[in-house]
Amino acid sequence: MHLNSLRDLFEHELHDLYDAEGQIIEALPKMEQAASSPELQRAFRNHLDQTRNQRTRLEQVMRQVGIQPNGMRCKGMEGLIHEGQEIMKERGNPDVVDAALIGAAQKVEHYEMAGYGTARTFARMLGETQAAGMLQQTLDEEGNTDQELTMLAESRINREARR
User: Fold this and answer.
1) Distance set, CA 147 to CA 15, 88, 100, 110, 153 (Å)
2) CA atoms of 18 and 156, how far apart (whole Å)
């Protein structure tokens, strides 16, 4: 892919996000299984459903702007997922492992927020108003998930891990 215009960059970002969402869909069931806290397991399960919906929404955005998903690999998400897999292999205090899983999940959320914010801004600048609105919806959901993970960590899991 050549990056000769903002449109090219916008398409590149959408392809990147599309693959990232696919990688997350594959990783979340494993994270749920690795978590010991029922609340964290539920959070990962709920986020899996949300991520599937977000990927469907992203497909709609891509169709709206006239592009098809391709085989591009999101290397940034690949690295974050790999870090999470390393955490899942760790043994030790279950509360500490859960705290580490939350940290890994929040890194993923922040990566997604950066990507969706960037894509939304490009869409606005290109006059793709409907696409920008849909990307903003996902960006808002990612922010809410990040806040939910923070609340879960601060209200119980990190306290238990500290003991």
Assistant:
1) 26, 22, 16, 11, 10
2) 33
d(CA 11, CA 69): 9
For residue 127, count other CB atoms closer than 10 A to its CB: 8
Phi and psi based region of residue 69 (left: phi greater than 0; alpha: psi -120 to 50; beta: remaining): beta
Q: Which of 103, 107, 115 is nearest to 139 (CA)?
A: 115
Rounded-to-integer distance, Cα 1 and Cα 27, Å: 27
Q: Where are the alpha helices (DSSP H) in 6-162?
A: 6-34, 38-64, 75-89, 94-125, 129-152, 158-162
Number of Cβ atoms within 10 Å of the Cβ of 107: 15
What per-residue confidence (pLDDT) applies to 70? Answer: 79
pLDDT in tens, 14-71: 999 999 999 999 999 999 999 999 999 999 999 999 999 999 999 999 999 999 987 7
